[in-house]
Design brief:
The structure is a homodimer of 572-residue chains.
Chain A (H helix, E strand, L loop, with lengths): L17 H9 L4 E5 L2 E4 H17 L7 E5 L4 H12 L3 E4 L6 H11 L3 E5 L3 H10 L10 E5 L13 E2 H7 L19 E6 L9 E5 H15 L6 E3 L7 H4 L1 H7 L3 E3 L6 H11 L3 E4 L2 H9 L11 E5 L6 H8 L3 E9 L4 E5 L11 H8 L4 E2 L3 E7 L15 E7 L5 E2 L3 H7 L5 E9 L5 E6 L4 E3 L2 E3 L1 H9 L4 E11 L3 E10 L10 H11 L8 E4 L13 H9 L16 H9 L1
Parallel strand pairs in A: 1-11, 3-4, 3-5, 5-6, 6-7, 10-11, 10-12, 12-13, 13-14, 25-26
Antiparallel strand pairs in A: 1-2, 8-9, 9-19, 14-15, 15-16, 17-18, 18-20, 20-21, 22-23, 24-25
Helix pairs in contact in A: 1-2, 1-9, 2-3, 2-6, 4-5, 7-9, 10-11, 12-13
């Protein structure tokens, strides 16, 4: 058996960029991208990517070099997910919602040879480059300016123009193979900096092999049928669009690109192009709910929405589904190259009451097929927890779609891969039917009198209150119990001012959960502090909670406006 | 970037046997196998496989050793697809329709350490072992007897009993990893001997990596949704069940095992268990059509059938679909680890007339996502043919799911992998929409006056005649043109004897295709000669055709009963 050596015919690197040439050959008449009035076919997208790749090659950039991009979900942003790795270089999509200082930190760390900048972020980029000292990047980093397609505005003389480069560069024969210039599937394809709710951003390096496997298993986990019409509400920079930049090509789908994620844009594009699929963090539900009252209530078939990032409470899922969206809940990590768990629906659940269905849907589900193993382990003994829904432990994962590690950060890499697993830092339980449910990030667990309280569980109950728009629960100090839950709540904006008070919400909690898990304090805010990808910044809330005092006799009417909070929010 | 080394958390061998432990954890309450009155759950199947694997390990068999099996689609046959490769050894499922002599050739070549034999094939197996000289296998090959589950018949004292071993062996901790004892994804998982319509059987060695990728991409290509109910009409020994032994586990599906593929068994099990999926060669359509007249005409939703092996004519597809089956056409090869092309349906085709839809459905389609590249190349110049439906060439493939090679046959391995591709030996064309259509095996092309005639094209027209049940066309010698088509036809068995004559069919052909491509001779048979997996044996027909004389003036009433043919058929 060992005499059978691998050869060119049976040993081809696994990389999702193979999907591009295949799409151009298998779906030649199919629209690849729609952006406003512009439309491309798959052969056109393939051609544009080859031309841009040829230009990058002409710069003598080489394997493992980094190419960064600062752009919204426009066609160029989609194309670089192919054209950059085609050349053997590494794509670094930057979170456009970050401030100049954080982006400067990222660029200093990633050391890109080329930076693509969309015109919308040109001012931000100028600020970033002012922050970088001379010689750090200016000397060897080339900026390519992405203008609106068809625009006649020229970039400044120092900058190259994306559309101009595509027009003027011919493709090269070296790009003719299906795998282009990728020779080793374990080479890096992308570098995404994690949102960093708590610490310095870390650069997650993903391999071609990992991205390929995640893209395939996401198609299966989500049951993405052939030829989807995919609306880009999820930023492509977020975990590289959870690998759907590549999976849409694999399915011969159509990418609906939009510059800004507003209710108007979402509903307009859904109706115009008969959107079948979209992904988003639960924060987008707020946009859908606020803009959904304009009559677009039922859709047939419903738009299939894959959601992740944080656990959506059952009550929220139900509200969004009423608008004509069919939600599937997923749990993922940038470090695991996208979605790890999918809440696979079981037909027998259709016979259950609606509220029970939503509870089942709120669980994170079962592993995708590229994950070799997922487990929940006792954080101290490292033994698997029983499948009893009660015993919590840390979720750990292994598989070939897990990241290669953090760039230039051996300490964090060793730490996260300790004991032969990716240690996610998330606390969860397993149901007897094999579905996982995340209880919290280990950092967010509240330990009260020796009992673990899941902040997510408390938030779930708060969301069930009809006046609550958003809720976040963190630990606050307690003289007797060590910690106790403190809730930060944004109320719905109705025509008349809400009359809901702190005691109403605490009463609601006490009626629906054990007494010791109820918040002792409720702080009303106009807005919750969030990071660049819409994740609630619990460390900021914890800082505020630390300064609050528990007074058991005075569950009161004090309404904190959280002045410091909103300022923090706008900065991150 | 290169400093990021692979580790246990992010580098796990790709193997479809990971699907087994996952199924037992993610689908613990789901039925894995139904066989008559017996039912197993996924945890039970996992447990049974672990016990059998532990027994195999106790024999000190080791990596790359071969374990053969001679069994129909019973639970044991399904289980060995996991339990054998779990131990690092190689599964060799043998075609049970072969004669003792051919099986002896295979065993002599494969040199198995263990042979599993189902009780139905015990007499055949005894004949096989009589043919093997002493010392060839008897000395070191252990036989494990598969009795009916629950049967009290004991095997002879020399043979071990499958159910007894499972009952009596405890699993070992060495089998606790998800990938069990597989440490290199390029190690072999299976050894399947090709049907060999023309030559000695060749042993196709497939890797764990190849099987994993094929299983995943078959799920996507066929759009096999979660929790299928899969009826085993396709023999599991055929290209190892086109990888669906593994894909059903990946989807948490239920395997309906049946001992014999009869119309009664098929329709009974479809109705009893609400079958959603099945695979078969087009020869099974004959069984479906003959048994389908008993009222089971419409099914909702229809049973999804993946068919391959030979190109089903459009007319045949339509007839089968009317019985409540929804056909998808696929093209595969044992050498490519199952299905290579899938005829992906396009919604816009639903608006076309029914006959046009069936023509589109008869094409072989577009490549699966594990195939890195597929092309049609001019057999002489090796250049890609234009996508014009007219220019024929050989279909060539590359990708990591292509076999490792032929066991102990370097000559054939080098030949089939020449020029860096798997050279399939099939002649095809490409449509402008990217779909491939197979015109013929290169061996079956008829060359008449310098023109290529596809035997499949002639067969298609014959199948459109309402009296034709089966048709096969081969070359017969022609004094002027070199070769000319000769048709072998089986007529439908109706209540009254068919009056269709040779001249009727030739007239039908002349009305529907170019004159030079029409058969000059039609031979009526009771049955077409077929090999063990139901493929029509064209070499046998060519032998007969060689002896026939073309007489242009006497397209006559001669009806050959093909005495020699049926004898040949029953032997193979």
């Amino acid at each position: 058996m060992d005499k059978l050596e691998l050869c060119k015919a049976n040993n081809v690197p696994l990389t999702p960029i193979t999907f591009l040439k295949r799409a151009s050959e298998c779906y030649p008449n199919r629209t690849s991208i729609i952006y406003g009035n512009y439309r491309f076919t798959w052969p056109q997208t393939y051609d544009r990517c080859c031309r841009l790749a040829a230009f990058l090659l002409s710069l003598n950039i080489t394997r493992n070099d980094v190419v960064s991009i600062l752009a919204p979900n426009v066609p160029a942003m989609y194309e670089v997910h192919f054209s950059v790795p085609m050349t053997g270089t590494v794509l670094n999509p930057i979170n456009t919602r970050l401030d100049a200082k954080t982006i400067a930190v990222i660029l200093r760390h990633a050391e890109p040879k080329v930076v693509f900048v969309d015109h919308e972020f040109a001012p931000l980029n100028r600020e970033v480059f002012r922050l970088l000292s001379f010689g750090e990047l200016q000397a060897h980093s080339l900026i390519i300016f992405i203008n609106e397609i068809g625009s006649t505005t020229n970039p400044s003389s120092k900058e190259l123009d994306y559309e101009g480069l595509i027009r003027e560069t011919e493709t090269t024969p070296s790009l003719s193979a299906t795998t282009f210039l990728v020779h080793d599937e374990n080479d890096p394809i992308s570098l995404n900096y994690t949102s960093g709710t708590t610490s310095e951003p870390k650069g997650v390096v993903v391999s071609h092999r990992g991205a390929y496997l995640s893209a395939l298993s996401s198609i299966i986990g989500w049951e993405m049928a052939i030829r989807p019409v995919y609306l880009w509400t999820l930023p492509m920079f977020h975990g590289t669009g959870w690998t759907h930049t590549w999976s849409v090509a694999a399915r011969g789908g159509t990418n609906i690109c939009i510059r800004s994620v507003t209710a108007l844009e979402i509903y307009k594009n859904i109706d115009l192009h008969e959107v079948t699929h979209m992904c988003c963090a639960p924060t987008v539900f707020k946009i859908l709910l606020e803009g959904g009252g304009t009559g677009q209530i039922s859709r047939s078939p419903p738009v299939r929405v894959l959601t992740g990032g944080s656990a959506p409470p059952a009550a929220l899922i139900e509200k969004v589904q009423r608008l004509g969206f069919q939600l599937m809940h997923s749990y993922g990590l940038t470090e695991a190259t996208g979605s790890v768990l999918f809440c696979e629906w079981q037909d027998e659940w259709n016979r259950l009451p609606a509220d029970r269905q939503m509870q089942l849907k709120a669980r994170q589900g079962v592993s995708n097929l590229a994950i070799a193993d997922v487990d929940v382990k006792n954080t101290k003994t490292k033994e698997s927890v029983p499948r009893d829904v009660k015993t919590i432990g840390e979720i750990v994962i292994k598989g070939s779609n897990i990241m290669k590690g953090y760039l230039n950060n051996p300490k964090a890499t060793i730490e996260v891969f300790k004991h032969g697993w990716l240690n996610t830092g998330y606390i969860g339980v397993i149901y007897p039917d094999g579905h996982l449910e995340i209880k919290d990030r280990s950092k967010d667990i509240i330990i009260s009198g020796g009992e673990n309280i899941s902040s997510i569980e408390v938030e779930k109950v708060l969301y069930e209150h009809q006046e609550v728009m958003e809720a976040a629960v963190v630990a606050m100090p307690h003289p007797l119990w060590g910690e106790t839950p403190c809730a930060f709540v944004v109320l719905k904006k109705g025509e008349k001012k809400s009359m809901t008070k702190e005691e109403d919400l605490i009463k609601h909690c006490r009626e629906n959960m054990p007494h010791y898990t109820c918040p002792r304090k409720v702080v009303f805010l106009e807005e919750l502090p969030k990071n660049g990808i819409g994740k609630i910044l619990k460390p900021k809330l914890r800082d505020i909670a630390k300064g609050l005092v528990v007074d058991e006799d005075d569950i009161g009417s004090k309404k904190v406006q959280g002045t410091g909070v909103n300022q923090v929010s706008s900065k991150l």
